[in-house]
C-alpha cells in the first residue's frame, strides 16, 4: 500500500471530533509513509487532513477540476496538485493514484465520491479496499440504509463485509493493509 484517497468535507462539521479525526488521518498516513490523495481544498476537514500530513512530513496530492480551481482556494503547500477538465477525469485519476479509499465525515460530494469507487469495486473495475471512518457515529444512519438496501434485494454483496469500518485512522489503515496483504477483497 503506497497511497490512500480520502474523501471528506470541505466544511469543519458541527463536532470537534471531525477535525481531530482529519488531523489524525493526515498524521497517520504520513507516519506510515503513505501518500494522501484528496480533493486539494484548503478549507474545512480537507485542509486539516492536508496540513496534518504535510506537517508530519508526508506527501499530499490534490486532485481537482479547472472549474473549481477557478472559483475556490486550493492548498498552496501540496506535493502536487492535478487539475483536470471534468469531474469524471478527476475521479478516474483518484482511482488510478490510490491503493484504497476512505470516506470520513462530509456531505453529498463525499458520499458521491465514495459510492462511485465502492460501486466500481463491486463491479470488478478495481480491487481496492473501501472504508468508512465512523467518527462520532457519523455513518451509523448510512449502515441502516445499506441494511435496508441489502434486505430488500438491491445489494448482492453484503455491505458489512465489503466495506471496511473503523472508528479511528490507525485502525482503518491497519485493516486496509491486512486486506491488501491477504488479497481478500
Care to describe what's here?
- There is one protein chain.
- By secondary structure, the protein is α/β, with parallel strands linked by helices.
- The chain has a single domain, classed as 3-Layer(aba) Sandwich (Rossmann fold), CATH 3.40.50.450.
- The protein is 49% helix and 16% strand.
- A seven-stranded parallel β-sheet has the order 4-3-2-1-5-6-7, sandwiched between helices.
- Strand 2, helix 2 (44-55) and strand 3 (60-65) form a beta-alpha-beta unit.
- Helix 1 packs parallel to helix 2 (44-55).
- The longest helix is centred in the N-terminal third of the chain and has 16 residues, at 16-31.
Layout: helices, strands, pairs:
Blueprint: E1 3-7, H1 16-31, E2 35-38, H2 44-55, E3 60-65, H3 66-71, E4 80-84, H4 87-97, E5 101-103, H5 108-122, E6 130-133, H6 140-151, H7 159-162, E7 164-166, H8 169-182
Parallel strand pairs: 1-2, 1-5, 2-3, 3-4, 5-6, 6-7
Helix pairs in contact: 1-2
Characteristics:
185 residues; alpha/beta; Rossmann fold; 7-stranded parallel sheet; 49% helix
Number of beta strands:
7
- Look at the structure and give the CATH class: Alpha Beta
Shape: globular
Biggest sheet overview: 7 strands, parallel
The pLDDT mean sits at 94
Strand content: 15-25%
The CATH topology comes to: Rossmann fold
> Helix content range of the residues, please?
40-55%
| Total number of helices | 8
What strand order characterises the main sheet?
A: 4-3-2-1-5-6-7
CATH architecture level-2 label: 3-Layer(aba) Sandwich
N-to-C SSE string, H for helix and E for strand: EHEHEHEHEHEHHEH
Amino acid at each position: 500500500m503506497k497511497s490512500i484517497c480520502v474523501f471528506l468535507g470541505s466544511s469543519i462539521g458541527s463536532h470537534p471530533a471531525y477535525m481531530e479525526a482529519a488531523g489524525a488521518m493526515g498524521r497517520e498516513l504520513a507516519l506510515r509513509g503513505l501518500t494522501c490523495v484528496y480533493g486539494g481544498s484548503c478549507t474545512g476537514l480537507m485542509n486539516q487532513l492536508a496540513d496534518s500530513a504535510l506537517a508530519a512530513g508526508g506527501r499530499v496530492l490534490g486532485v481537482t477540476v479547472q472549474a473549481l480551481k477557478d472559483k475556490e482556494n486550493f492548498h498552496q503547500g501540496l506535493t502536487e496538485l492535478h487539475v483536470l477538465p471534468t469531474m469524471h477525469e478527476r475521479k478516474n485519476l483518484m482511482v488510478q493514484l490510490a491503493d484504497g479509499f476512505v470516506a470520513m465525515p462530509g456531505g453529498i460530494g463525499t458520499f458521491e465520491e465514495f459510492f462511485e469507487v465502492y460501486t466500481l469495486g463491486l463491479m470488478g473495475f478495481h480491487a481496492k479496499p473501501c472504508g468508512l471512518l465512523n467518527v462520532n457515529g457519523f455513518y451509523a444512519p448510512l449502515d441502516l440504509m445499506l441494511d435496508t438496501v441489502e434486505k430488500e434485494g438491491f445489494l448482492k454483496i453484503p455491505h458489512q463485509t465489503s466495506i471496511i469500518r473503523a472508528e479511528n485512522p490507525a485502525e482503518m489503515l491497519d485493516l486496509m493493509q491486512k486486506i491488501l496483504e491477504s488479497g481478500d477483497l
